[in-house]
Amino acid sequence: MAKQWSFGNLTGWALTALSLGVLLAVPVPAAAQMDRKERGVEIWKGLRDKHFGDRPIRRGEDQDVVGLEAPDRAEDPALVPITIRDRTGEDRRITRLWLVIDNNPRPMAATFRIGPGAGSGTLSSRIRINAYTYVRAVAETDDGELHMAKRFVKASGGCAAPISDQEEDPDLGKMRLRVQGPESNGAGRRAHLMIKHPQVTGLQMNQVTRLYPEPHFINWMEVSYGGERVMEADLTFTLSKNPSLRFYLQPDGKDRSLKIRVKDNQDNRFSTEKGI
Amino acid sequence: MGLWRQATARTGFTALVLGLSLSGPGLGADPAPLEVQEVAEGVYVHQGAHKDLGADIANIGFIIGNEAVAVIDTGGSLGTGKRLRAAVREVTDRPIRYVINTHMHPDHVLGNAAFRGDDPEVIGHAKLPQALGSRAPTYRQKLGEVLDRTVPEDWIVLPDRTVEDSAELDLGGRSLRLEAHPEAHTNNDLTVFDEATGTWWLSDLLFLERVPALDGSLKGWLGVLDRLKERKAEWVVPGHGPVRADWPSAARPQVAYLETLLSGIRQAIDEGRTMREAYESVGWDHRQRWELFDEYHRRNVSAAYAELEWE
Predict the structure, then answer these.
(1) Which residues form the domain of A126?
(2) What is the ipTM of this complex?
(3) Residue B225 backbone phi and psi in degrees, to 5
């Protein structure tokens, strides 16, 4: 037990006292939840000003363009399934999507530029959520309007969740791609892309070593279908380990090639191609 | 010892300054002993409650030899650890030479610090230090929310000695065989076999009544159980549920549940169902058989889905 006894030194106890003081300043859980909501809304206001200026954003009953599906309470905060649902009709299409998680360390979690190769703006993935928070999907349509859907999700610790102990995955960047037949509702073929990547947030301190691992996550991705862009995405560590992304390709009976290009924050580049 | 006294004195000081009532050793009344059952001669087990989270939810206990005592898991809080220690002292004065941790989960290890004064050798799986170290901040925070208090850093006591494969401990005329397993319930599961009575302490490799919690590998867990089922033991001690059970028959409900997850999730993945669709559809026919099913089942499916989708 000798190692742990070093807490007997003055510095250790001073630090313990300090952290006790800091933690005690945190309000009780019920109030804390309210505070998180409010703090999140403040963060959102800042992001809104920065990214959208004074452009109006339709929300709630005022918009029927974008939907957001997420569990009320996440089963695993490091694996929260979400779907951004494209609800546009024939008259317009989604051209950009922003995924915002108010109370995450990087609230602007992902941005997607949707191109003509996409069958719809609907996207599903799995994300990390670090604290009770609003999750927001903001969509821009080709008429220049902005629309937003949001959901409050109860989850905590997703960004600080432990990562696997293995240091190097020999399969880093390996991709799997599955494409289903065209859907009857005209949304096109559904594609499922899986990428082997640890998605290290860098926020998981090891209490014993006091070390934080080096962040390592996919930060850019481009998907094209028959030479046309399906999407280009700027991403963060918010996507869960071994990212999974489902999206739609434009309906088309002809043989076409689906190409994926991916880059991570350590400048590793991966790509794959599949004939459909 | 000297350092501990010093530390205790400062704890008292800190508590005074912050107006807290921390009950460290030497402060306040003696803790009430945990209720334990003697499941075999010299083998004592306390049954934890089937609650989601908390200080006293796991089966923990101790084994007494002619010369010394080995404590096996220490409970989910310093207070539970102290109550376990009081239970030991009700039965024997022999020194507590070993504290064995069967895996990193907080309900099994957060009472370790209660045994500091005994200066035992703390023993765990070779992968326990990294696994617990990286999870410790989260465990402390979550337990803090449940107990409505701050969980200090020094509740985390890591092993002095780790087991890569297997090890023998001598309690004086009584030998314990420790065995480290490949990734199953967690990546650091350790079992204890008491040769004197044929008692096999499986801890969380075996759940009874309470739904198994998957925090390692579904395929690995089934594989480990497959091998363990071939071995003989007079009886086993599960990590949750009744303190003693027959082997291997006690494993049946758990194996059935885990096999349902395996086949159901594989099918869901083949059919292109999402993780969410999988956890809403797979395995619900097992719901009536388990406590806390609603709290853990979806998470089990999520973890298994993430494991299986790369097959």
Answers:
(1) 28-275
(2) 0.79
(3) -60, -35
